[in-house]
Each structure stands twice: as C-alpha cells, then as structure tokens.
Amino acid sequence: MLDIRFVRASPEIVKADLLKRNTPEKIAWVDEILAKDARSRELKVQTDELRRRRNTIAREINEARKTGKDPAPLMAEAAELPKNIKDNDAEQDEITALIRTRLMRLPNILHESVPQGKDDTENIEIRRIGTPRTFDFEIQSHGQLAADRGWADFERATKISGAGFYFLKGNLVLLDLALQRFALDLLEKKGFTPISPPLMINRSSYEGVTDLEDFEKVMYKIDGDDAYLIATSEHPMAAMYQDEIFEEKDLPLRLAGLSSCFRREIGAHGLDTKGLFRVHQFTKIEQFVFCKPEDSWQIHEELLANAEEIFKKLELPYHVVNICTGDIGTVAAKKYDIEAWMPRENAYKEVVSCSNCTAYQAASLNIRVRDKENFESKRYVHTLNSTAIATSRVLRCILENYQNKDGSVTIPEVLRQYMNDREFL
Q1: DSSP letter at 419?
Q2: One-character DSSP codes across 257-316
Q3: CA distance 228 to 363
Q4: How confident is the model at residue 298 (pLDDT cuts 50, 70, 90)?
Q5: In terms of C-beta distances under 8 Å and separation of at least 24 residues, what long-range contacts does 220-227 make, across chains too?
Q6: Cα distance between residue 228 and residue 216, in whole Å
Q7: What is the pTM assigned to this prediction?
Q8: Which among 14, 192, 311, 371 is least buried, having the fewest CB atoms inside 10 angstroms?
C-alpha cells in the first residue's frame, strides 16, 4: 500500500498517477483519505488530552474534598471521561481501518519510464533476441506431442482433478527437474539463497503482499481455514519478514523461491486447452529481493538480466516488453515481461514477469531498514520480484521450438548435464 506520509505530502502526485493508470474514479479517495487523516490526528490530540485529564482529575477531586469544596462537578466530569475516551477510540479505529483499506486499494506510483497505454496492445518492445526457427514440416502442438509420446497424461488428470491439471511422465518429469536445477544453479552463483516456502499463507499476510480485491478471484481458498494456496512463491517470501527491521549490512537479500503455484485461471479453448501453458498448478522458480530504496532500480535491471540469461542459455527466441500503464496492475511501479517465441501460434507469449514494487509491499507488511548513520531512523525497504523460470511454460517452448520431424525433441545443450548427457527426448 502507499505510505500515508507520502499521500499526505504529495497528493497531487498520487492523483496524477491515477490519471496515468486510467482510474480517475479513485481520485476522490485521495481527498477522503486526507480528510480522514486530518480527523485522525485531531482525535489523537483530543484523546491524549482526555487521558491526561483522567490521570489528574482524581487528584483534583481529593484536593477539593480536603479543602471543603464541592467535588460534584469534578466527579461528573470524571464519570464522562471513560465514555469519551472509548467513543474517540472507536472512531479512531473506524478511521484507521478505512484509511488502510483505501491505501491498499490505491495503486503504486509508476516510474516515469512506464509507457502510457490502455491495454496490453500498447506495451512497448525493448529488444528482440534470437531468430525463430524455420520448420520444413508441420509441427505438432506440445500437448498432443507429449500425450502421444507418453510424456504427459491430460485425460486422466482431468478425470481426477478437472481441466487445467496434468500428469507429467517419464522424460518430461526429468526435463522439468532439469529446468529447475539449471535455474537454481544459475541463481545460486549470483548470490541467491534457495527457498522452499510454505504453500499456504493466511489472509492478513496475503493482503500485505497483493491487492486481494483484484487477485482473489484467481486464488484457491482453503474452506474452513484462514489460508490460501499460494499463486507464486513471491507472496510467502514477501511476507516472510513481516513486522521486522533489517540492518543495512544485510541488504540486499536475494532469494530464489522454488514452489508449486496454484491459480484458478486457465487457458481458453484452442491451443491452451490441452497443454501446459495456462494451468491451475505449475512449478516456478521466483527471484525475490529486499533492498535499500536507492538500490532498487539497478536491481530491477539485474533481475531482468538474470531471466534473460536463462532464455539465452536455453537458446529460445524471445523479446522483452515494457508494460504500459493500462496493463501493469496495482502493485508494481514498473514491470517488464519476457515473451518467448511459440512457433505453433507464430507469436510471442509471456514466460517471465519482472517487477519493482518499490515500498508498496513493505508499507503494507511493515518491513523496514534501519539507517546505519542514525539508529532511530527507519525506512521501508523496496521489494522486487521476477520469474526465473515457470517450468510448464518453458516445457511448451522446448517441445515446440526443439521438435524434430520424427517426433523426437532435441534437449537444449545447457540441460544435458542434468539429463545424464542425453541429447534427445
């Protein structure tokens, strides 16, 4: 969420940003927040004074009795004080809840380099890497190929779990594991600590990580429990240090989360119906960083470079796009996507999302860093996240881009050390 101190100091920046994001209906919230914030501070002064009065009035009553004065007016005032304090506290709690709700629904402030646009058709391509392969035969869909070769079973998964699930089998299991180990090895050499997070987190933690109003429709809620299945390991890693304070020497903290991910969204009818691209459960390795605010934009580029390195080493054609204001979502201040070439669709499709969330998540989760020069001074950290590899999507890329006329699939050279030096599936 946005820091109330920032909204208080720079309301016009917040309003201008809402116009950039094509959400002018939320501008009225800024004025509402400021009005409620002013009332909150006024209430605090009043309540502090009431509490001070409560501490002194008993002494005045005793003094009146000692000197023969009538204590009745003071006693009447003393009788009213608890009720007045309670009423003020109740109003303060109501205002605090409303302000927090509004702050959590206002989007992050965009970086100046985010392009203006209404939807994903206006995202800006930054660069294109690799040349798509030319095929002299008609390639099979990755789902059909995997099923025909006994590498996946979609029908039996649908029978027991519903559409959007799959069994991986044999060689494709090994290739999936090879992708995981390849990405983890690469990140560990760059100073990332591998993390295997909990696969469920509670609502209060989730609300600190993302906009549940927008995200909840694609999440799985555990009936009867205060728990959600995670949609990405970014979420438990972000909440991992909730209500904690870092020392500057401990930042940046680089984490590589390996987890299953669960999402209700699923591909449309057609190429995604029987396959691995948009599914309810998949495995992903996520880059996540806590850092000092002044370091976050450099680290954002580093995370993108790490993800690009993975796709370069896999020799999969891709391009990088700068996500526009109408497509960026609530939490990120800037986001890049990497879209890999899918030859059967003759199009680039998203395989990586790389975001700088600045202080937005940290303000919700109350994660700060102590100033080494001023022990009492604390700032919200910045958080960043980026896909390293979502294995199901990359499996699709490999099955299509590396497919051979006889139905075999060439294993990318960088993965062969993890596949007992085999060259083909």
Answers
A1: T
A2: EEEEEE-S--PPSSTTTSSSSS-SEEEEEEEEEEE-GGGHHHHHHHHHHHHHHHHHHTT-
A3: 22
A4: very high
A5: 220/262, 220/263, 220/264, 225/200, 226/202, 227/200, 227/201, 227/202
A6: 9
A7: 0.93
A8: 371
Candidate list 350, 408, 416, 422, residue with the active-site label? 350
**Are the C-beta atoms of residues 357 and 52 closer than 8 Å to each other?**
no
Residue 355 bridge partners (DSSP): 335, 385
Exactly one of 21, 102, 149, 263 is catalytic; name it.
Answer: 263
Structure tokens at 271: 């190429």
**Catalytic residue (one of 353, 355, 364, 392):** 353
User: What pLDDT digit, counting tens, does each position of 6-20 carry?
Assistant: 999 999 999 999 999
Annotation says 278 is catalytic: yes
From the candidates 21, 254, 393, 396, which is the catalytic residue? 393
Active site residue 51: no
Task: Check: CB of residue 192 under 8 Å from CB of residue 254.
Answer: yes
Query: What local confidence, expressed as pLDDT, does residue 271 receive?
Result: 47
Cα separation, 12 vs 111, whole angstroms = 15
Catalytic residue among 278, 344, 368, 396: 278
* 263 a catalytic residue: yes
